Amino acid sequence: MWNELKDSRLINGIIEKIGQYKLKLTLMHACGTHQETLSRYGLGSLFSKVGVTIKSGPGCPVCVTTAKEFLQIMRLAEKGKTVAIYGDCLRVPVNGRALMHFRAEGYDVRIVYSIDEAVELARSLKNDVVFMAIGFETTAPSTASTLVRDDLPKNFYVLSCHRFFLPAMIKLLELGEIKLDGIIEPGHVSAIIGYKPYEEIRKRFKIPQVISGFEPLDIVLSVYYLVKQIIEDDVKVVNEYNRVVSREGNQLALSFINKVFYPKDIEWRGFPIISSSLMAIKEKYSIHDASKQFEDIISKVQYDPSPLEKTCRCGEVLRGVIHPQACPLFGKVCNLENPVGACMVSVEGACRIYLEYSELF
Q1: How far does CA 282 lie from the centroid of its chain?
Q2: Residue 233: left (phi > 0), alpha (psi -120 to 50), or beta?
Q3: Which terminus of the chain is less hemmed in, N or C, by CB atoms within 10 Å?
Q4: CATH superfamily of 60-322
Q5: Backbone angles phi, psi at 50, to 5 degrees
Q6: pLDDT value, residue 194
């Protein structure tokens, strides 16, 4: 309790100090956990009072996975495959139908908490098991370290929807839809890739960056460090989360990623095709690659959005163009019980977080 009280006083003091500069800034974070902290503790509203607006970016892996990829896993379920997914994926709708509806109709859709569970599921079944692998560099090492194993059951497959994070931020800045004064970079991803890769953004776009942890004090300090860079006209990459993040990152995790995956162009939800952003499985491990082994099934999948889904502005939320409340469906047609877009489903989805905490402040 004493530490919480001390942090509260420190946080209020830092925010008051930021306010003394009388700036009008637009920042972006790219992590759902950062948004959770901002909303849970009312930091977003405190920052807005001192002229700092913080927008959500493409930091939710489930959200940026496209409707077409969800249709592919649905089609595999329809064709009799056992589908293993993370819990967040169960309710992601595509034209009003989600994997939970397929499960209710008798198709074999299982929730797992790790890829290891999916492997054990394959061992226990004669049926083909397809694991939908979603996530950035944070979760990709576990998928990669699994695929290099010699003892994988022959009926186990991975549909890789893993993304490299940095290409999306570069694409967002290239699009130039919004003017950003600084970026709060994600702590989880940075723990794997380190802070060295962000130098590319600094050099190309001359924009201040801070890698942040997830506690309220972490985020407040990160905003302050961005403000200081702006005031002093000293653009750099600051590692606020230095208790976890190093310059070079987790070399073992990166070695597994590089061993198993190669970069490939792919669309992200709300984005055009982003070059070299998909973690595609290398030919050496293609015997367990669902996109290769079941290409005849998933290659035929086409996504034709319904009028309601065309109205959903989840893509603009992911690009930071709008706040969730600006979507005409937010909290009305699209809500926690009946989501229209992935941003209202995932625990890291900005729309879900905004709506869940909207009555607190």
Answers
A1: 23
A2: left
A3: N
A4: HypD, alpha/beta domain 2 (3.40.50.11740)
A5: -110, 20
A6: 98
Distance CA 21, CA 250 (A): 37
pLDDT at 8: 87
CB 90 within 8 A of CB 99: yes
Can you say whether the dihedral through the CA atoms of 337, 324, 47, 205 is positive or negative? positive
Distance CA 98, CA 90 (A): 6
Burial class (CB in 10 A: 0-12, 13-18, 19+), 267: middle
H-state helical runs in 245-340? 251-260, 290-293, 295-298, 307-311, 314-318
Residue type, 50: V
Count of Cβ atoms closer than 10 Å to residue 117 Cβ = 14
pLDDT of residue 2: 38
* pLDDT recorded at residue 7: 82
pLDDT at residue 330 in the model: 96
Contact present, 97 and 306 (Cβ < 8 Å): no
Closest to 101 in 3D by CA, of 77, 65, 117: 77
pLDDT-flagged residues of the chain (< 70)? 1-6, 359-361
Give buried/exposed letters for 304-337 (b at 16+ CB in 10 A, else e).
eeeeebeebbbbbbbbbbbbbeebebbeeebeee
